[in-house]
TrEMBL record:
Name of the protein in its database record: Sequence-specific DNA binding transcription factor
Taxonomy, superkingdom: Eukaryota
PANTHER family: NF-X1-TYPE ZINC FINGER PROTEIN NFXL1, NUCLEAR TRANSCRIPTION FACTOR, X-BOX BINDING 1 NFX1
Name of encoding gene: LOC100383238
InterPro entries for the chain: NFX1_fam (IPR034078), Znf_NFX1 (IPR000967), Znf_RING (IPR001841)
Keywords, ordered alphabetically: Membrane, Metal-binding, Repeat, Transmembrane, Transmembrane helix, Zinc, Zinc-finger
Annotated RING-type domain residues: 109-162
Amino acid sequence: MPSSYAAAAAGSSSRKPNRTSSAAAPTLRPPAPSPSPAPAPLAVNPSVISDSDPSSYSSSSADEADFAASDSATASVVSAYLSVAGEGADLSKVGIFLSSAARRRSPPCLICFDPIRPSDPVWSCSSSCFAILHLPCIQSWAHQSASGPAVPCPTWGCPKCRFAYPKSEIPSSYVCFCSKTIDPAPDPWILPHSCGDVCGRRLDANLDSGCEHTCLLLCHPGPCPPCPAVVPKATCFCGVHREPRRCAHQRYSCGGKCNKRLSCGLHHCPVDCHDGPCPPCAVLGSHKCECGEILEEKLCSERIFQCKRECGGMLDCGKHKCERGCHGGKCGECPLRGRRTCPCGKKNYPRLECDAEAATCGSTCEKVLGCGRHRCPERCHRGPCDGTCRLVVTKACRCGGLKKEVPCYQELTCERKCQRLRNCGRHACKRRCCAGDCPPCSETCDKKLRCGNHKCLSPCHRGACSPCPLMKTISCACGKTCFEVPCGTEKNQKPPKCSKKCNIPRLCRHKLECRPHKCHYGACPPCKLICGEEFPCGHTCKERCHGPISPPNSEFTLKPTKKKMGKHIECTPGTPCPPCKEVVLVSCFGQHLGQERTMPCCKWRPFPCENLCGNPLLCGNHYCTKSCHVLEVPLNHPEGDRTTSISKVNALAMPCEQCNLPCQRVREPPCSHPCPLPCHLNDCPSCKVLVKRPCHCGAMVHAFECVFYNNLNAKDQIKIRSCGGPCHRKLPNCPHLCSEVCHPGVCPSVDQCMKKVNTRCACSTLKQEWRCQDVLKEYRKSGRDPKEVPKSQFGVGLLACGEDCKKKLKAPDSELHLRKSQENKIPAVEVVNAPKRRKRRDRGQEVKISKFQEVKTFVLRALLIILLSIIVAAGLYLLWKGIFWLSDWMNEMEEQRASQRYPRGAML
């Protein structure tokens, strides 16, 4: 034994204080400190859990405490082993049993199904299953199994693995796992049912392996781990290579050719270094059969073979042929040589040849017949005796209930059915004429096993049925993590915790964002992220994700029904996003500033305000005077991302009124003529109207294009308007005309007219020629305004009257007096005969009218009045009808406008 291995064994045994085998109550004490560092906890594959651990599924704090206790207990058991084998040693097999035994929740007994407590006496199977059972249960089980029908070597089997133990090995005492300590006391600091000492069992029970090491673990359940000792010169299978190896793996393959001589003795093994005997030689060749008659192509390992022909060789007598099949060597002696007798064997023929037939002796045959009691009564004969013994004897049936004389060969049976119970104690024999040796019960037990799931399939038997040997596998949803429990104990089990990721893909839009969760049964946890789906309005959904849900795993069920197994679970469709509840600022129909309202985005709808539209008309000069109405919203509008809503609004859009006014723009250059075009936005065209402008003196009229005339400056306009002739305008202070060339403004010679004027006295007798300017001066001196002097009187009265004037005035007065006196002397008759004056135009004339004409006139007036009355009545009626028609038309137009403004309301 290596020194390190022995030191580890000694150290592990020194850590354990001396214990007594008495069942005294244990005292709680902490484990003794170890001089070496504490080994790492036992690494057990998390996907393989104990087959007898019912608590491996739990995720509660108690289960976590169980795992912690299991780790500390197993670490103390395997510390010595790991110090020799290293941290990477394979303890997967024993680790399952260690973790199961260290749990607080005890595994159940396979016989009684009650939990095995640490203080209960137990028995452990030492074969391959290492099941732990209650000691009283296994004792009762073994005694019942071994006390069956009488057999030479009664045995009893393990309830789990059915390994057969002899009756002498029925357990009689409670021993620890390593069988060193009887009645081990329960100790909370070590594994239950363990003595706490080093196991010490031989690691390899095969004596041919050469391993003489013992187990270094503390007393433990389950199989011992592989031997960790190091063999310095371990030989490979073919015996060529040698290298240091662990004792448990000292037999290995070097990877080279085996090259051992095969059983044929001709060829070498071509297989890589292997364990066990070499395979048969597979080299092909032509070989003869044993008799040498047939040549066939056979494998070297099959070169010795026999054909299907008879040998046919002559025996040593030289008279008979060999009747054996193909064989090697000599055919041998003739079987007819030697001592010869008659057929019944009473008479000998010592010198009879092998080819001569022996004669009968003539006496009675007397060979024992098939019945075994009588002899053949025939004479000596060749061939077998007649197997039917016809001697009449008195026979009893097998059950003894009937006696009768019958031929000896005939079997006598009665019709009585055996009523004795068979060995099962449940069913009657019911065999006809039974001799008392009732056969074992051939029926199936068919009792319900204690597992409650299966029936006993063994032949019908006495006592309790064997426990159900099946194991139930309880796995997670993905099946990668599982554990096995005895059938019947799975009812209280829960699925194990699986560390693998759930393989159900999410169907919502967050499948790349959600954190993966662990394997589970049932539905996946709901997605808790914000939906984030973009609405047509441009906002995003802020509700929790409500997309489609993947089909869930089936719920954990130990016995799924056919209905559930065939049920196809489909994915749950997602719900649509709720209406957008983002608060937005909505403008009125006319997009008026200051009239906005806040409302949820889902209720986004423009509204009419109380203002006029005010939208610029197409003319660009005037504004719409309609009440606030729907305008067409462009897609690049700040709210234009609501494509659906805006398209609906645009469908209801009402055009602004059309501008029917004439153009009211001021032309450039300004003129008084209106633009002939309707109201427009661009500049007005040039004015081509002919403008009539008189010359300065008013003698003639010029015609100019308005644009031409207005584009001239003031000097050019004065110049172009001049006619070039004399002014001919009357001077304001005198009756003469201006003598200047046609000019604008006041004539320059107003007070300096040089024309001659005839001045007269008051009576117009005296006459003189003055210059006009002198006349004006004279008028101003006398205090008179020249403008007030009539043209006919201009210059009259400026001269003083002389003597001639006075004489001239007296003569007209005398002539007037004479004319009046003559008119008074004319008689009145002459007045009558005087010529008539013409009557005034406005003086009326009296006309005489007849009565017929008066009646006719009255009738015509009456008819005219009646006709006018009818026309007035018809007009009033039509006016009344027209007013009602106009009112209905206005109502229809109002409804159409309302339906165009609010289409949803109209639809509702």
